[in-house]
User: What shape does this take?
Amino acid sequence: MLTLKKEELKDQAQWEDAGINPPQFDYQNLIDNTKENPEWVHFGAGNIFRAFIARLQQELLNEGEVETGIIAAEGFDYEIIDKVYQPADNLSLVVKMSADGNLDKTLLASITEGLKADSQFEEDWEKLKEVFKNPSLKMASFTVTEKGYALDNMDGEFFPFVLEDFKTGPEGDLNHLMAKVTALAYERYKAGAYPFAFASMDNCSHNGQKLKDAVLTVAEKWVKNELVEKEFLGYLSDESKVGFPWSMIDKITPGPAPEVQEKLKEIGFENTEIVKTNKNTEIAAFVNAEAPEYLVIEDSFPNGKIPLDKAGAIYTDRDTVNQVETMKVTTCLNPLHTAMAVYGCLLGHTSIAEEMEDQEIRALVEQIGYKEGLPVVVDPGVLDPKDFIDEVVKERLVNPYIPDTPQRIAKDTSQKVAIRFGETIKSYRDADDLDPADLVVVPLAIAGWLRYLLAVDDQGKEMPLSSDPMLDELTPQLEGIEIGNPDSVGDKLHNILSNEKLMAVDLYEVGLGEKIEGYFKEMIAEEGAVRKTLNKYLL
Assistant: This one.
C-alpha cells in the first residue's frame, strides 16, 4: 500500500514502481539521530517548507551530507500538525509540476517530528525547549509569512495581545510567535548561551532584519519589565552568538490541487485528503509546486551551517542577498504576481496561467517587469534579472499545471504593497534621471488594489475578498464609494495613499497620489471600466 506510514518505507520497490522517489536512508535512524543531536528546527509547517526547504534537506540526507532531519514547529494553525503531520507519521509526498505536464514525485522523510509551538500543548512545548537547550542546534528557520513578524498595526501601535506578551515574560503563556521564539532563545541562553542562527526564509524584503527587530523588541520589553536579565539582550545582539541571516526564497507553491489529487489516486496513493482547517489553511499530506526554485542565504551561522549549497542553494554575503531579494521582490516577480492577482479577481479569473492569456493582464505583467522594473533593478551577479523575468513570464506564470489562483496571491496584499511597489517608486524618486511621476503601470497596480477593496468585480457583482489583516481598517475608509459615481470618491483615498507605512512613501509627495485617484475614478465609472482602463493605458 502506498500509505504514508513509517513501516511502509521498508518496501522501497512499491514506491519506485509507482514512479515515486523514496528516501535513501533509514528513517528511524534519522529520527533517533535528530532527537539526540538536533541541528535544525523550522517554524511554519506549511507547503513551501515541505515542497522546497525540507526537500533540500532530503537531498543532503540521500547523499550522506547530513545525518539529522528537521523538527517542524507550527505556531499558528495547530490543525496542520493534528490532521496532516501526525496521521502520516510526519511524512509527505512532494510533487513537482513541470510545464510539460510531468509530475516528479518524492516521498519526503526529512521531517522527523511535528510539534505545536505553544505552551498550551505542554509536551510539545517542553520538547521545543529541550531542542533549544541542546548545544548541537545550528538553525531555527521560518516560513510564517510577513505578518508572522508584525508586532504592531498600521499606525505603529502594538497589538493588544503583544502588549500582554511584554508583561507575561518567557515563563508564561505567550500569544505571538515572536514572543514564543524569544522565550525559546532564552532557554538556550540560560543553558549556556550557545550560538545558533534565527533564519527567516520568508518571501519578504529584508526578512532577517524583520525577524531580528521583532525578537529584540520582545527581549527589550522583557528587560525593561525586569522579566529577563539585560545580558540576554546582549546575547541576542551579539552576531558571534546569534545570527539573523537574510535570505531570498522563490518557489510558487499553491495549495493542494484536485488535479494532482486525482493523479495520485490513480497510482494507488492513499493519503490524498485535502484538509481545510478552521483557520482556512488548505493543506494535504501531499504538496504540489512548480519546478523552478531559488534560495539565496547570507552566510551568518555562528554554530555552523547546514550545507544547503550542496543541494542548490546559494550562500553569499548580505549585500548580494539584498540585491537578489530586491531584484525579485520589488521588480522581477512579486510585483507582477500582486498586480495580476488583484486584477485577476476583478476580471473574474480563477487561474494564474489563464490570466496570462488575457491581453490586458499580460501587458500589465510585462510592462511592470520589463518597462518599469528593469530600469531600476540592481544586477546581483549570482542571478541575471532579465533572464529571471523571462523565466517568470515565459515559463512560470503560463504553466497550466500550476493550479495557482489570483485569489490566493491576493491574500495579505496590504502587507506587500510597500515592498512590491513602494521600493520601485523610491528608486525612481532617488534616481537622477528618473521621475516617479512618469510611472504608469505601478500606480495602475496600486489603483487596482484599491478598486479590488470595494469587493465588487468589473461586472458589478459582489466579490469575496481574500484574507488580509488590515481589511477591517481599510474597507471602512472606502465606504460610500459607488460604481458609476466617480464623484463619490471625494478624499476617501487620501489617508491610504499618504500612509508611508502602508505605501513606503507619501504618494502625493512623489506626484502619484492624484494619478492613482484618477485611475481609480476611471475604474469605477461604469461596469466594465476596469478592463477599459487597462486597455487605455497599456495597449
Notes: The mean pLDDT is 95. The CA atoms of residues 376 and 427 lie 6 Å apart. The longest strand covers residues 92-97. The longest helix spans residues 207-224.
